[in-house]
## 1
Amino acid sequence: MSANARGRLGDWWSRRTRADVPVRNWTAISSGTPTRWVGFDETLAWVIAGLLSLGLVMVYSASIQLPDNPKYVNYTSSYFLMRHILSITLAIVAACATLAIPMRTWEKMAPWLFVAALLLLVMVLIPGIGRVVNRSRRWIPLGVMNFQPSELAKLAMAMYAANYMVRKMDVKESFTRAVLPMAIALGVIGLLLLAEPDMGAFIVIALIAVGILFLGGVNGKVFAIMIATLLGALLSIIWLSPIRWERIKAFWNPWDEANAMGKAYQLTHSLIAFGRGEVFGQGLGQSVEKLHYLPEAHTDFLLAIIGEELGLIGVLAVILAFFWMVRRIFIIGRQAIALDRVFSGLTTQGIGLWVGGQSFINMGVNLGVLPTKGLTLPLLSYGGSAIILTCVALAVVLRVDMENRQILRGGGSRER
């Protein structure tokens, strides 16, 4: 074997071992032709399916008593269950369609997807188009469901930031040419989201954008300046908003009588739910807090109901599932970058930041570690557009994994 051949083999093996993913061939290979279908990470797909299934059960458990509340008097006990089933069905269809779209197509569409997300964020603020729920204008009615543009903005930001870093790779050390344009784009999205208001979504989108800049290799000093500026802006927003500042003070002392009956009402009842669950839980369907004590039990505080009914064991199972899933997403992204597929790798890691960051914030809020924010638990909480867009994003991850495996089998081509 020649030195050049050994070098090529060593390079292939280095990438193969860095990938940390076994390749599985699903179709026969004949005449030396590379297979077009080499499968994807089945374990990741099963974990996603498991979380969706658990969410379906727990949403039904948390919402079955809601018709007893005068606010939901015209609803049936299975109303939220049926709508959640519809959302999951649409999410599966959308995810299957997404699996058929090559990453090269997503790379070309990324800027236009970002523009579409911006336009929808503007539209939702227009009276008569955007729907107001709990003093927030975040939804566009679509008949069978309400669409939340901020969910699309998360996926759009992951793809746009990845596409941006690929285009700016040669000038990533420059603040004015690499960081400043992205900071302006993030600022525009931030203003639109805070006008709804939806600070939780802005925090997640900022995490995606800043994380991709860091993973893309932006200069460390410039990155530190950007982080400091972003933190300063967030603290200023909290300080200048009396409502947000009251929430922070209530978070510091939730058991004060005024706070427990006011801004910390959800937090205190969430903690009571976890306390009642102890190690093994009260049993499925046996939650007391869902009986109109804990508001939004089927959305933002679903983890508290899991803790009450399934106990510490159930909560740890959910945390471990998310930890494993996010870690696996980052491995797939790292593999793509090792195969010179920078856009695919950064997009995948951006989705990992999205799912990991949002689940961390939601869990932190439920457990009283973070101030209360209106963020759902990905894949589990009730919410149509959130379920659909999260499944689409995870289908993009599976598509990246498929293309990685195709390259490792000798088919396909690198992006860059």
Note: The chain has a mean pLDDT of 86.
## 2
Amino acid sequence: MIMDPATSRPALVIDNGTGYTKLGFAGNVEPSFILPTVVAVNESFLNQTRATTKNSNWLAQHSAGVMADLDFFIGEEALTRSKSSNTYNLSYPIKHGQVDNWDAMERFWQQCIFNYLRCDPEDHYFLLTESPMTAPESREYTGEIMFETFNIPGLYIAVQPVLALAAGYTTSKCEMTGVVVDIGDGATHVVPVADGYVIGSSIKSIPIAGRDVTLFIQQLMRERGEHVPPEDSFEVARKVKEMYCYTCSDIVKEFNKHDKEPGKYIKHWRGTKPKTGAPYSCDVGYERFLGPEVLFNPEIYNSDFTTPLPDVIDKCIQSAPIDTRRALYKNIVLSGGSTMFKDFHRRLQRDIKKIVDARVLASDARLGGNVKAQPVEVNVVSHPIQRYAVWFGGSVLASTPEFFAACHTKAEYEEYGASICRTNPVFKGMY
């Protein structure tokens, strides 16, 4: 076997999320870059090419097309460009965890590889992540772009929650059985994993995630009449959420606390208007605890979906095979930025414990006290790398020697086509 030079270099780990993309090299403890998943494309070139088709030469049109292909920005740069000039239009390539716009996604990857990580994609194996409910076609498109456009030597597409579980792998003893509660910006998934295998039929998905918390905070501030410039209000709400929000144990008590000592609990936000540069300030009050409350009492935000997160987790575990349930309750792992609220894991553990204890009591009463049920241990695990647990899990896995054997290689892609990306074997030879 010829030694592939790419296997001696670290793999690239790119975790594309709805809100943020985490990218870096395998073997590192944290991602080298965390950037908003957004692309700013210059629209003026496109109009220019249309206008010049009638009378101008082919060359001018061609070079305008090439410029349009190169003139775009991603991440924070994209946001600042779109604010300062009207020629750039923002495009969010991922919606609710699924890739929505493949052209934008390809551009996004292009800058990730060349401008941020600054490496030659032909020299590195890639580990990309995907959301649990992704269609196999999406994997084929990803494989096609990676092998055709970037000419990479090998690719592995991993499911995010499994990586999040593997992230806890180094922090505690090797537990590959657990429920991953992955709350990102665009989607929330509750995924039971037994011995490293996802129990597909029990995956639960919730239409409420980090972006909804932001929108709810934005709505609360708007209704209260805070003077935030409208074009800036979503960003301000997001910053307020990330800086000031926390989870409370009892909402009524919390309202009382805020009313008794407003000086202690109300925070002040100061910003400058993007167009004029004039300073403005606004108060941050109840939304500090009402934001995260959306996950525990969804009806305050949206009447379409009213099942609280603890109930969803409980239903998910109850629908899993009976011999895995105790182990699943014992290891509920949090992952994703929206689980970072202060005391979030305590509140979640308390609420799930309540549901479980009520069930045990009911079954004891039904059996008339002849048989005593063993109490069920509920444990919500919170760890310091929760925010990019998926990326870190990918970094751990992609730095093991077995990783390269599990990847799909360029040669395989050329022989069999994109359909090889549909299955991502944990072990080669077991399809």
Note: The first helix runs from residue 5 to 8.
